[in-house]
């Protein structure tokens, strides 16, 4: 079992910044890709940013240039620095990871709310 716990969400005004963190724990041998997803009310969950074990990144067009994904492999921790936030960024943000522990795992965090006021 691998658990992911997000933190860092909250309420911020448009133009502000937040930094999300996601800590992985449990039976972990290696983590391949890690990612942030988000789900706004009434909408489907969408990918925000992905980072591989080697550090390659990919972003949704709506956040490119404003958000930065990073990871600390030694700490099994994922980050999302969010700048120039917009009201349309309001959503529950979820952490996702896939890798190897006692077996192959694919885990989701419980989500953290990000609310951007106009």
Notes on the structure:
There is one protein chain. The protein contains no helices and eleven strands. The chain is globular. Strands 2, 4, 5, 6, 9, 10 and 11 form a seven-stranded mixed β-sheet that branches. A four-stranded antiparallel β-sheet has the order 1-3-8-7, with no helix packed on it. It is an all-beta fold and 118 residues long.
In a few lines, what is going on in this structure?
The protein is mainly beta and 118 residues long.
Q: Main β-sheet, in a few words?
A: 7 strands, mixed
Mean pLDDT: 96
Number of helices: 0
Shape designation:
globular
Instruction: Give a count of the beta strands, DSSP E runs of length 2 or more.
Output: 11
Strand-pairing-aware structural class: mainly beta
Assembly context of the chains: single chain
Question: Mind telling me the C-alpha Rg?
Answer: 14 Å
Note poorly predicted spans: none
Helix content: under 10%
User: What is the N-to-C order of secondary-structure elements (H for helix, E for strand)?
Assistant: EEEEEEEEEEE
């Amino acid at each position: 079992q691998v658990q992911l716990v997000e933190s860092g969400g909250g309420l911020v005004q448009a133009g502000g910044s937040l930094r999300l963190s996601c800590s992985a724990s449990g039976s972990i041998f290696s983590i391949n890709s890690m990612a942030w997803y988000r789900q706004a009310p009434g909408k489907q969950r969408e990918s925000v940013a992905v980072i591989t074990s080697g550090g390659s990144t990919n972003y949704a067009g709506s956040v490119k240039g404003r958000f930065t994904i990073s990871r600390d492999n030694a700490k099994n921790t994922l980050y999302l620095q969010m700048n120039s936030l917009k009201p349309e960024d309001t959503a529950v943000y979820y952490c996702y990871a896939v890798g190897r522990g006692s077996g192959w795992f694919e885990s989701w965090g419980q989500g953290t709310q990000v609310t951007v006021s106009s």
